[in-house]
Amino acid sequence: MLDSEGNRLLAKYFTRGQNTAGYKTAKEQKKFESELFGKTRKSTSEIILYDGQTVLFKYVNDVYFYLVGNPEENELLLSSVLNGLVEAISILLKHNIDKRSLLDNLDMIVLAMDEAIDDGIALETDPNVIASNVSKRGVDTIDVSLSNLNEQTIMDAYKQAKERFNLALLR
Q1: How far is CA 138 from CA 74, 135, 158, 170, in A?
Q2: CB atoms within 10 A of CB 4
Q3: Each residue's pLDDT tens digit in the chain (171 positions)?
Q4: Any residues with CB less than 8 A from the CB of 135 and at least 6 apart, and which?
Q5: Buried b / exposed e across 42-66, counting CB within 10 Å, b at 16+?
Q6: What one-character-per-residue DSSP string does 84-102 give?
Q7: Which of 32, 87, 89, 104 could form a disulfide with 127 if both were Cys (CB 3.0 to 4.6 A apart)?
């Protein structure tokens, strides 16, 4: 993900089954990203062949989303993964995709990427499933409703917090 000026917001490079010798260092990755941004910045298509790789991209507000794959990879599958990830991020950010929202919710964005792609393998393309799985992780860690909190005394709240802390330590 790059911003509207070509600066990196988030990037994940996978090396499984690919010849990615050219993108091992941060300097090489930055060079690749800046050249790719220059090539796609004014393009009207959503898919190009660049540096021997298939590149799909989508521009939303002030953020460029990129998905790079092998030239032998199925473009429809790559497109489904990219569109599913962008839609899931849109759901998670309440349809407010912009640079500031992405940076403020980077933890959810990384989880969404991990739900969609693992070590370069597409796991999920359905944006609702991706968003749901990311949301479930947040619900598991924070399980306090306001109605429960209002009905508790301070001592009850302290006991409940202590129990949860102890359970968290045991996990």
Answers
A1: 33, 5, 22, 19
A2: 14
A3: 888 888 888 888 877 655 545 577 888 888 888 888 888 888 878 888 888 888 999 988 888 999 988 888 888 888 999 999 999 999 888 888 888 888 888 888 988 888 888 888 888 888 888 888 888 754 444 444 444 545 557 777 777 787 777 777 776
A4: 92
A5: eeeeebeebeebbbbbeeeeebbbb
A6: HHHHHHHHHTTT--SHHHH
A7: 87
Q: Return all residues near 120 (Cβ < 8 A) that are at least 6 apart.
A: 14, 15, 16, 17, 18
Instruction: Report the DSSP beta bridge partners of residue 68.
Output: 55
3-state secondary structure of 3: strand
Residues sharing a CB contact under 8 Å with residue 123, sequence separation 6 or more, in sequence order: 115, 116, 117
Q: What secondary structure does DSSP assign to 31-73, as a single string? A: HHHHHHHHHHTT---SEEEETTEEEEEEEETTEEEEEEE-TTS
Q: What is the pLDDT of residue 28?
A: 86
Residue 123 confidence (pLDDT): 86
- Is the CB of residue 92 less than 8 Å from the CB of residue 105? yes
**Separation between Cα atoms, residue 59 and residue 95, nearest integer Å:** 14
